[in-house]
């Protein structure tokens, strides 16, 4: 039997079940939008494209939509013309819960009943209708709530696996509360639909509703321990709510954004794990220590380089090494560890515990634990300078702004999956100028008067090539490249917080003194660094190894 899919909490799924329909929430994140991009406007939101992709691949044959936003209206028009569906229906629902809206909804319910009944060749089954109402389960234990725009199943599973508490999906379609009250005992279909319309409209409102104040109950639960607020690119409704939530809660809050594909899962996982670590420090530091030789290693496996630091039992740096990551994170880590051990005149068995961090951390199988680079950079920066309160980590593929309190992550922000303002951006531009990144940074001191308008790496590279063709001086182009990075990072830091006491620059670009000087000028306060700030991630990982030791 073919399933009938829906995408909105206001969909009358109980009515569809009364006509023999098997209902399922359409909530899968595709690998890409190859088919959807052929028939839809490029700026349509990722979820709208996901719906189109599911239909165009033949997975969906029956679909009921609700006019929740302009995207869904566009999706309906496209699908109506496509001829790919056996059954397609759009419910035209008003954006308020008043008498007129309920009357309008009753008419829409009756229209859907006629259309779906004719399609299925079945009559309304009142028994099935009543049995379809299930009382929503309410959380009674400490939990983390996922709020905001709908979240794909794949990403939600990632969230559940990452968090130290149980996770409740309170995103748009998933916080459906129809069923708290059973239908009235009557055989009058009109009376049932009048009651049903009121129940549908009386739910905890979504952000499409004109009066959405009732949503406050979602983040005022005493059992709530944290919130992950999810938005989909180009979804305005839930982007507006985030600011309100941030102002009205006392629990930890993490905002993540997706394009509704699984392509950005690696970066999102880093954010989720860092958020979990900040909430679960007791477990992160747990474990009885059994001291051996008293040496502890931290491996920071980044996208371009792998850093290894070895500490002794007194927390002193024995050695540090940086090598290119190469084609594989595991092999790169093994080479770097071997070199670090050689420099320290140690053997692998001398290492009591080893913690991995960075994007390649999960690929390194012989570590005792993996910790996100966000937590590790906070620890490492605090180790180098206990006065540090804000860490700017410009990595190979992302930039992080981390608020630190006593070496622990208080809050953080990462750039999206665009590489603008990162070490990779600098590397690409330097290659275009036939220079090494450090050379270009130093040359930028001598330049002025040129800007790169585009923040996109691809378009920025085209601008650089154009400037070269125009005969612009290398130092001026270098200045423009570095200036674009500095402005991007400064804007990110400003979004994070206006109060930024004691700024510290870590990561690969901290070796470029001009970067820290330019950031100091742009932010209006000193951005400090340290000769060992390059190793901050690996130092933080090694400190985690010292804390952990080997369990008995």
CATH topology (level 3) name of the largest domain: Rossmann fold
SS elements, strand count: 18
Specify Rg, calculated over alpha carbons: 27 Å
| SS content category | alpha/beta
The level-1 CATH class of the largest domain? Alpha Beta
Low-confidence stretches: none
- End-to-end C-alpha gap: 55 Å
Number of helices: 19
Number of domains: 4
Beta-strand percentage range: 15-25%
Under the CATH scheme, the architecture of the largest domain is 3-Layer(aba) Sandwich
**Broad shape:** elongated
Which structural traits does this protein have?
single chain, 552 residues, alpha/beta, Rossmann fold, Nucleotidyltransferase, domain 5, 4 domains, five-stranded mixed sheet, 40% helix, 18% strand
Question: If you had to describe this structure to a student in words, what would you say it looks like?
Answer:
The chain has 19 helices and 18 strands. By secondary structure, the protein is α/β, with parallel strands linked by helices. Strands 11-10-9-12-13 form a 5-stranded mixed sheet. A 5-stranded mixed sheet has the order 16-15-14-17-18. A 4-stranded parallel sheet has the order 2-1-3-4, sandwiched between helices. The radius of gyration is 27 Å and the shape is elongated. Helices cover 40% and strands 18% of the residues. It has 4 domains: 3-131, Rossmann fold (3-Layer(aba) Sandwich), CATH 3.40.50.11890; 143-282, Rossmann fold (3-Layer(aba) Sandwich); 290-385 and 537-548, 2-Layer Sandwich (Nucleotidyltransferase, domain 5); 392-529, 2-Layer Sandwich (Nucleotidyltransferase, domain 5). The protein starts with a strand and ends with a helix. The mean pLDDT is 88. Helix 3 (46-56) packs parallel to helix 4 (70-82), helix 5 crosses helix 8 and helix 13 packs across helix 19 (536-548). It has helices spanning 13-18, 36-39, 46-56, 70-82, 99-120, 126-131, 153-162, 189-201, 236-248, 265-279, 281-284, 329-344, 373-384, 423-432, 437-444, 457-469, 474-496, 513-523, 536-548, and strands at residues 3-6, 22-25, 62-66, 87-91, 143-148, 166-169, 224-232, 253-258, 295-301, 305-312, 317-324, 351-357, 369-370, 390-394, 399-405, 408-414, 503-506, 527-528.
